[in-house]
Amino acid sequence: MSTPGVGRKGRLWMTESSRITVVAAMGLCFWAGCWGNDPNVLRVSGQIEGVGVDVGSRVGGRVREVLVAEGDRVAAGDTLVRIEDDEALAQVAAAQAQYDQAAAVLAKLEAGARPEELEQAEAAARRAEQQYRLVEIGLRTQEIEAAKAAVDAARAQRDEARAEFKRLDPLFQQKVVSRQLYDKAKHALEAAAAQLEAAQKKADIAVQGSREEEIAIARAAYEQAQAALDLVRNGARAEDVAAARAAANAALAGLRRAETTAREMVVQAPRDGVVESLDVHPGDLVKPGSFVRIADPEDLELVIYVSAAALGQLRVGQKVRLTADSLGDEAFEAVIVQIASQGEYTPRNLQTEEERVQQMFGIKLTLNSTGGKLKAGMTATAHLDLRQEQ
Q1: What is d(CA 306, CA 361) in angstroms, rounded to the nearest whole number?
Q2: Total domains present in the chain
Q3: How far is CA 166 from CA 121, 196, 244, in A?
Q4: Which residues make Cβ contacts (< 8 Å) with residue 278, sequence separation at least 6?
Q5: pLDDT of 284
Q6: Percent of the chain at pLDDT above 70?
Q7: Of 79, 76, 71, which Cα lies nearest the Cα of 277?
Q8: Residue 166 CA, distance from chain mean position
Q9: Same domain for 77 and 100?
Q10: Which of 10-19, 219-228, 297-306 has the lowest mean pLDDT?
Q11: pLDDT of 135 higher than 70
């Protein structure tokens, strides 16, 4: 007979073939032998199952190492399988760096400016203000006179260079002086003329004063420096600090997520037990999901099915006597832990008594191995006491 199981919501279920077999057996029991000598005791058989847990990884990857084999006994926390974690560790490092950066920005905003930063901002604001004032009021009289004197000096130098060039030019034409001496005098005249022109422009600016656009530029630079100083003095705005804190929290969450993924690269036993099945080898690519099953030989269960007529005489927590086919009349104890609230694979309309007999309800019992005598796979018989006084 196929092994019954438990549905997603804890509802006991069985396959169609199991239902047919159980219904047939219950029909025979109902009319003849399953009640035995005591009409208050219903005997129902089932197969003992081990209670196991499926273990695996939520992310999957390439298997690097398998540390256990089927049949090995393991303790909770033992490492079963290692998956390659190079990429996962790199993601942890990247997330850590991102969090460190966000935390540093938040700390800077919360701490405010250092004394030296405040001094630098104040000095920059003073320089910008002085430059703006100079451009706005123009040059002083002494500076204008100095600019005019520079023009006179440049003009005198130009005149001297011109005279020297005029003296050498006819001599060069007559081939009395060399080309080198002639070129030197020509270049000196050109340089003196350029210096005179530059000095004249500077003097004109000194006399006329700064243009409006120059004053506007200087004012903008001063206002910008003053705003930067105010920002340093007042510190960051509350909304800027809040944004930086949110960014730091998001980076921390990313770090925790990366660390969780990295931990999934090591598959550990969640409980004590025996490795019942293991379907991976080093080098295998495994998908997210389970690939190891661990069962505790001491943690057993038995699922049986009874008719609606017997259901009213049973309760959760009721102790049940068990016998095993391979152990003769030796009795063991089990406890009812679940009674199905719905019948399994029954007709929708139960009109007759014969049809109601077919309505089966699953009963789950828990038991232990009693020193290893009972094992998963054994057929056991539950002796259900149906008397009202339990």
Answers
A1: 5
A2: 2
A3: 58, 19, 75
A4: 66, 68, 69, 70, 80, 291, 292, 293
A5: 94
A6: 77
A7: 71
A8: 86
A9: no
A10: 10-19
A11: no
- We report the CATH number of the domain holding residue 304 as 2.40.30.170
- Say if residue 79 is in the same domain as residue 90: no
Q: Give dist(CA 46, CA 366) in Å, integer.
A: 13
Cα–Cα distances (Å) from 377 to 134, 139, 240, 299, in that order, read 101, 107, 66, 13
Q: How far is CA 57 from CA 80, 277, 332, in A?
A: 11, 16, 38
Q: Are residues 250 and 331 in the same domain?
A: no
156, pLDDT greater than 80: yes
Give the confidence band of 62 by pLDDT, cuts at 50, 70, 90. Answer: very high
| The pLDDT of residue 149 is above 90 | no
The upper half-sphere exposure of residue 347, i.e. CA atoms within 13 Å in the direction of its Cβ, equals 11
Q: Pick 357 or 286 by higher pLDDT.
A: 286
Residue with tokens 């036993």: 269
pLDDT tens digit string along 248-260?
999 999 999 999 9
Same domain, 277 and 376: yes
The residue segments making up the domain with residue 106 are 86-110+241-263
Identify whether 129 is part of a domain: no
Residue whose C-alpha is closest to residue 83's, from 56, 69, 62: 62
381 domain-assigned = yes
For 388, the 3-state DSSP assignment is coil
User: Which tokens hold the place of 211?
Assistant: 């243009």
Whole-number Å distance between alpha carbons of 39 and 351: 26
